[in-house]
Amino acid sequence: MSASSRAEPVALLAAAVAALAVVPLLVVVPSALSEGVGAAAEFLFRPRLGQLLGNTGALVAVTVPATLVLGTLAAWIVERTRVPWASAWRTLLLMPLAVPAFVSAYAWTDLAPWLDGLAGAALVTTLAYLPFVFLPVAAMLRSLDPGDEEIARSLGLSPAMAMVRTVLPRLRPAIAGGGLLVALHLLAEYGVLELMRFQTFTTAIMQQYAVGFSDVAGSLLASVLLALCLLALLLDIALRGRHRVARVGSGVQRRAERMGLGAWTAPALALLAVLVGLSVVLPVATVVRWLAAADGFEGELLADTASTLGLALLGALAATAAALPAAWLLERRRSKRAHLLERATFLASAFPGVVVGLALVTLSVRWVSPLYQTVALAVIAYAILFLPRAMVSLRAGLAASPPELTEAARSLGAGGTATLVRVTLPLMAPSVLTGLVLVALAVVTELTATLLLAPTGVSTLAISFWREASALDYAGAAPYAAGMIGLSLPLTLLLRRQILEER
Amino acid sequence: MPRRHHPLLASLVALPLLLGGCAAATDEDAPRAGALQIYSAQHIDITEALAEAFTAETGIDTQIRDGQDSSMGHMIVEEGDASPADVFLTENSPAMTTVERAGGLAEVDPETLATVRDGLAPSSGLWAPIAARSTVLIYNTAMITEEELPASIMELAEPAWDGRWGAAPGGADFQAIVAGMLAERGDAETRAWLEGLASGAEIYQNNIATMEAVSSGEVPVGIMYHYYWYRDQAGDGRASADTALRFFGGGDPGAFVSMSAGGVLAASDMPDEAQRFLAFVTSEAGQQVLVDSGAMEYAVGEGVASDPALPSLESLEAPVVDPSTLSSDAVLQLMTDVGIL
Predict the structure, then answer these.
(1) What are A45-90's pLDDT values in tens digits?
(2) Closest CA to A275 of A129, A478, A485, A415
(3) Torsion of CA A333, A339, A340, A343, to 10 degrees
C-alpha cells in the first residue's frame, strides 16, 4: 500500500514535466493547421518536401548504423580486449563530446572545401556523435558480470559466440538508447548541415523561421519532424528489449576477462587511431592553427564564457531535476503510464532549438510576459531540449542499481528519507552527475534557442563563434571555438571518470 | 559506504556558489532600465559603432539586441505592444515593411527624413534609409571573360547558365533583390526567374560563402551585394581573390539598390530618445561613422561622401522602386511555390 502512495506524487511530478515538454507542440501544431488542412496538405505534398524527406532519411540511414557499428566495436575493443593503451583510447574516444560538431564541420570545410552534401554531413555527424553510442556501451560492458558468458563457454561456445549470445543481448538497451540519441540529434542538427550545404527538415525549418518567424510553413515542417521523432521513439521501444541488467546475488561482481587480439592488434589500433584522428585531432589542430593566426582576443570572450558557463550549469540542473521523476517511475513502477510520460519528454528534443525557442517566445509574450527575455526562459528551453540526455543517463543508472537494495533498507526499518539519503541517492549519484554533464555539454554548444531567448546583451560562445564563422572569419571564430572546447574538456573528463573509471 | 561519492557531494555544495557567481555575471548583461533598446539586424559592428557615437554625443545609454532581418521583424510584430524595443535597424527594407504593415512604427521626424538624399526615403514616411547596398554580379576572372557575362540578371535563369551561378536565396539580402524584381517585372517573370534559380543555381549560406565559391572556382559567377567584396579587398583579399564585380546598370533588376532601414517603434517607451537616435544616424556625423566603420555600404545622408573606393551611388543606374512597395511576404510565397523554401 505504502508503495503506491509513494508513487503518486512522483507520478504527478512526472506528468507536470511531460506537460512542460510538450508545450512547444501546443504552439506548433495549431499554427501548422491554422490555415486549414487543405492548405497544409498543399504545402506538404510538393516535390520540395519529398526532397527534404529523402535527405533527412538518407542521413539517418547512413549515420545511425555507422555510429552503432563503430561505437560498439570501439567500446568492445577498449573494454574487452588486450588492446595496448586501452585507458588512453577510452579517454580519446570520449573527446568528440568536447569538440562541438559545428566546429568540426567548420574545420572540415576549411580543409576540404569540396566535401559537402550527404557524404560530408554523414562523415561529420558520425564522427561527432560516436560517443553517444560508445559511452553507454562501454559503461555497460564494464558493469556486466561475466558469469553468463563463462557459463556459455563452459557449455561449448567459442568466446566470440559466447559474446554474441550472452553479451550482445544485454547491450541492447545501451545500443538502442545510443542509437535513439543519435537519431534525435540528427533530426535536430543544424550547424553541421548548414556548413555541409545539405538540406534537411531542420535546415529548412530554420530557413522558414528566419524568413517568417512562427509562421505556418515552419510549423508544418516542424510537425513532420515530430512525426519522424515519434517513429524513432517507437523503433527504440521495439529494439530496447526487456532484459534485466542489475545483478543481485552473493559474492562480488567481477570484471570480465580481456581477450587477446593476436594478429588483429594492428587493425584494431588502426581503427581507433583513425576514429580519434578524424574526430578529435583534426578539428582541434585546425582550431589551434586558426588561433595562431588570430591577433589577440576581444574582451567579449570572457563575458561569453561566463554566460555560457552559467547557462550550462542552470540548464543541466533544470533538465536533470526534471528527468528524475519519470526515470524513477519507469525503473521502479514500470507501467504503461510511466512509459508514456518518459516518451513525452523525448518529443520536443527532436525539434531544432529554434522551434522550441519560438514556441516559448510566443507563449511568454502572450501569457507570461515577466518571463520574456529572461535567463529563466532560456533555462526552461534547455530543460525541454535536453531532457532525453538526462533521462537516458538516469535510467541507465537506475537500471544498474537493484531495487531490492531499497526494499532491503526499508525492511530493515529505515524510513523513506533515510533510504533515500543512504541508499537511493548514493546509488543514483553517478548517473545524476552523468546526466548533469551531458546536458551541460549540450548547452555549451546550443545556438538557435539561445539566440531567441537569451536576455538582450547576453551572448554565448556558440553564438559568437557562429557569427564569426558565417563571415568566414576563421581567426575571429577561433577563440570562441577554443573557449567551447576549453569548457567542454573538463566536463568530458569528469564524465569519463564517472562512467568508465575502475569500479 | 562508497567513499568515491564525496567529491560529488562537495561539488553539489559548491554548485550554488558557482551559480551565484554566474547569475551575477549575467545580471550585468540584462536589459538596463533607461537604456535605449535597439533591435539590430544590421551588421552588429556597424550598429555598435553608431550606438557608441550616439551615446558619446548625447549621453543616452543604449543596449543592442542582435538578430536577422526577417526573424527580427516578425519577432517585433509578435511582441506587439509589449515589445521592449525602441528602435529597429535592418539590413534591407522589406523586414521594416513587415513591421510597418503590422502598424508597429511611429512616424519619423520630418527633419530626419529631410537629411536623407532625395528619392531614397519611402513614400510612407514611417522609416528612414540609413545605408544602401547595390546588387552586383561577382565573377571569377580566370574562368570567364567580361564579354561572356550576362547583360541582365534575368539571363541567369536561362539553361545556358545551369550549374554555373551561385546565390544565397535563404537570406534577407537576396529576398530584397527579388522583391525589387517583383516590383519592377511582375509576378510571371519573377516566378520564371526563381524557377531557373531553383533548378540551375548553386545554393550557398550567405553572400560571403557565395563570394568564396566564385573565388575558389566552384562557380564562375554569383549574385551578391557590393560591399562584401570591397570589404574583403580592403582586408587580406583572400575570399575574393581572382574575382571582379560587374554592376548591371541600365535600370536592370540586377542593379537594384537595397536600403538599410531605421524605424522608431510605436510601442517605444522612450520615443524622444528613439527619434534622436534615428536623427543622429542619418545626420552628417552619424553617416560619417558609417563610412569610417569600413562597412563599405553607401552613405545615404545629404552631402556625405561614401568610401572613395566605391563607384558613386548615382552612377549605378539602379531601377527606381518605392521601397514602401517592397513586400517580403509576396517574395516568400513565390519562393515557396517554386520549391526554394
Answers:
(1) 888 889 999 999 999 999 999 999 999 999 999 998 999 999 999 9
(2) A129
(3) 140
Which residue type, as a one-letter code, is found at position B331?
V
What angle, 0 to 180 degrees and rounded to 10, lies between the N-to-C axes of helices A168-188 and A47-80? 140
Half-sphere exposure of A3 (CA within 13 A, CB side): 10
What torsion do the CA atoms of A97, A99, A105, A107 make, to the nearest 10 degrees?
Answer: -150
Angle in degrees, CA A141, A147, A150, rounded to 5: 100
Q: How far apart are CA A366 and CA A31, in angstroms?
A: 15
Cβ A472–B209 below 8 Å, yes or no?
Answer: yes
Q: What is the pTM assigned to this prediction?
A: 0.86
Q: Cell 528551453 sits at which residue?
A: A381
ipTM for the predicted complex = 0.81
Distance in Å, alpha carbon of B237 to nearest chain A alpha carbon: 12
For A:274-303, CB contacts with B below 8 A are: 303
Q: Which of A456, A497, A501 to mutate to test the interface with B (most CBs of B within 10 A)?
A: A456
| Full 3-state SS string of B12-69 | HHHHHHHHHHHHHHHHCCCCCCCCEEEEECCCHHHHHHHHHHHHHHHCCCEEEEECCH
Q: Which residues of A touch B206 (CB under 8 A)?
A: 470
CA dist A354 and A267 (Å) reads 43
In this predicted structure, what is the pLDDT of residue B19? 47
Closest CA to B236 of A465, A472, A287: A472
Average pLDDT, chain A: 86
Cβ <8 Å between A310 and B29? no
Q: How many CB atoms lie within 10 A of CB B88?
A: 32
How many angstroms separate the CA atoms of B236 and B216, rounded?
Answer: 15
Distance from C-alpha of B70 to C-alpha of B92, rounded to nearest angstrom:
9
Indicate if the pLDDT at residue B215 is higher than 80.
Answer: yes
